[in-house]
Amino acid sequence: MVAMTVGEHLAQQLRSHLVTQLADVAAMFPSKPDWCHNSAQALVLGHGRWFRPAPLPVGRTLGSPGRCFANATRHAARHDLAYVEGFALPEAGPVLQHAWCARRDGTVEDPTWGADGLAYLGIPFTRHYLQAQHRRGNTHQLLFEQHRSDWELFRFGIGEDIVEDIGELNEPITLSKQQEN
Prior knowledge:
By secondary structure, the protein is α+β, with helices and mostly antiparallel strands. Helix content is 33%, strand content 18%. The chain has helices spanning 6-26, 40-47, 68-79, 127-135, 152-156, 177-180, and strands spanning 49-51, 82-90, 96-102, 108-109, 117-125, 168-169. A six-stranded antiparallel β-sheet has the order 4-3-2-5-1-6. Helix 1 (6-26) crosses helix 2. The relative contact order is 0.22.
């Protein structure tokens, strides 16, 4: 067995906390028999990827507070990064819906929080999917405004053409029908 460093142990505890919070919230939503996922929380637990927190690189500026989806959309396009939506744990406060960017090595560039994120679990969308959604009028929030796209990600799930192959795969957590009810 390989011993964990203190930092690795803390990162594992933070991830565990984030997953527990998401599972608790997802369990509150009723199941829908013909849908793949009952909530954004369930979708991210089933398909999310972990990203490593890091400070924003020198010379890159923070966007407007409270505008993470718009900030991440602009930052990803400007710096050729992946756009990611999911849930993150800030230094202070509860797990939040959030958007950030990621480098190819899975490192976070968060143009809203800078270095204030402790754990990030989300879906890195392909540029093609992001652009297609923008053409359809879904300008920023892909996971959290699913009503704009007829709930397609919840109903049909996530195809390979939607997700960038970056970040560390989460061990998928599937809620039982009993948990979902």
